[in-house]
Amino acid sequence: MSSNPAAPDIEAAADSDSLGERAYKAIEEAIVTLELAPGTSVSEVQLSRRFGLGRSPVRSALQRLAAEGMVLILPRRGIMVSQIDVRSQVKLVETRREVERLVACYAAIKAASGDRQRFREIGEEMEAAASANAAQAFLRLDAEFYDLVLNAARNEWAAKCIRLMQPMSRRFWCYHFQHADDLGTAAHRQAELVRAIASGDAEQAKAACEARCDYVERMTRNTLLD
Question: What pLDDT is attached to residue 8?
Answer without folding.
Answer: 45
